[in-house]
Amino acid sequence: MKKVTSILAGLMAIAFIIPNVAFASAQDITTIPAPEGLMGIVSVLPIVIILVLLFMKVDMLFAGLVGGVLAMIIGGISLGRANELLLSSIPAMLTITVPIINSAIATAVFKSGGYASALALVRRGIKGKVEYFAAFIVLLMSAATYMSGIGGGTAMVLAPLAFAAVGAVPELIAAMCLAAAVSFTTSPASLESSIVSQLSGANVADYIVTMRPYWIIFTVIAIVIGFVGTKMRGAAFVGEESEEIKAKSNQELFINTIPAIFLLFAVIVGPAINKAVGMPILGPLMYLVLTIGLIAVCTDFNIKQSSTALVDGSNYILTRLFQVGIFITFINIIGETGAFTAIVNVAKGAPGSVLVPALIIAGFAIGVPAGAYVATILALILPIAVSLNLPLLAIGLVTMGVGLGSQMSFVNITMQAQSAGFDIPILQVVKGNTKYILGSLIVLIVIGFVMV
To answer: What is the mean pLDDT of the chain?
Structure first.
């Protein structure tokens, strides 16, 4: 009981001193009157309860349901109004189509063996210099996660390959986790970017362009960590290529990687080309068709297998968008009580210079215990930045902070995939990540101070 009381007290402090609120739409939450006096505190209780349940690793939808029902009681919100919010929240999430398309295409590239071929090709080319192989694994982790938006899925593919090649090098694992965190929180294909777009009202493309320099900065940091750590430990190759890979020549392996290279080019450079020519020559339709065609031509998949992989690749993000849509319904119900207006009023009294770093720290702190629910955490912290008219960069830095926290979480999918892929306990992954993730957090906070 004492432990629960301490958690509640800490969360109340976060709620009022380092504000983290949610409202799953672009509307101005300050238009809803703030409850006064004791009711102002009572109205925040659903948010606190949701956070406590997430800290306790309770399912996100159950946590949202408990908070939503309590908010209905506190605010006298009818069942009819709750139904209206449900029927508007889910469609709003499912209309974010570009991330769905990108995630599906990237998953198809995964399944066709493009990334395994790329690793094998690099391994053959570096002639025993294993630190360069480690650096390439980190780069591939970043690029693949950026294209697919799914850190856990990328780790499930790359971690076993890395383990078979060089073993469980702690710096390599930490670098892969860091690369995943900064990639899925800034990816044009991720659920997290979709949430940022939905909450802020900003176009996904604008968010991606704003955050791309910082994605590159932290990816370079991750590559350096992986390279230096592997070299200092004197790691060496510990395994052979699979029989399927051995049977392929370097030329065949390179051909297998062409779909991945093209997709990365289309995602990163495509918007600039489209703007220059004045038409979407590399828009979603074109690079979808071309990538699936390249998979059929350049890999062992035929056109039917390529198309099937595309459709199957959409399962993950569609399921998650539906899940988050339901959760956001409960958050919107809480918004109807005026709870978020009350918190915003408190937040407005905080010095502007510390607000963004405080939100980054709050997001990170919640991400550590509740890292399985990164999108959910964003729904609980981002709209305070929106309501205070903070720039898109600030929103992106806070999103990155949550992502970093998730890479020290025992319940995060990427962390679990690393544990399984490298055949070590997840506690060992967390311990190995700690100093590098905390160091990256400090860099992120400094950027928040200087750039926002």
So the answer is: 84
What Rg, from alpha-carbon coordinates, does the chain have? 22
pLDDT of residue 7: 36
Calpha distance 106→154 (Å, rounded): 10
pTM of the model: 0.77
* Closest alpha carbon to 381 in 363, 355, 365, 403: 363
Q: What is the pLDDT of residues 195-249, one digit of tens each?
A: 999 888 899 999 999 999 999 999 999 999 999 999 998 877 776 777 788 889 9
Which residue carries 């790359």 as its tokens? 158
Terminal C-alpha separation, the chain = 41
Beta strands, E only, 137-264: none
Q: Structure tokens of 181?
A: 């965190």
The percentage of the chain sitting over the pLDDT mark of 90, rounded to a whole number, equals 39
Residues with Cβ within 8 Å of 270's Cβ and at least 6 positions away in sequence, in order, are 282, 283, 287
Q: Are residues 211 and 186 in contact, defined by beta-carbon separation less than 8 angstroms?
A: yes
How is residue 117 written in tokens? 């071929």
How remote is the C-alpha of 380 from its chain's centroid? 15
In terms of Cβ atoms closer than 10 Å to its own Cβ (0-12, 13-18, 19+), residue 387 is buried
Smallest Cα–Cα separation from 102: which of 266, 272, 280? 266
CB 145 within 8 A of CB 151: yes
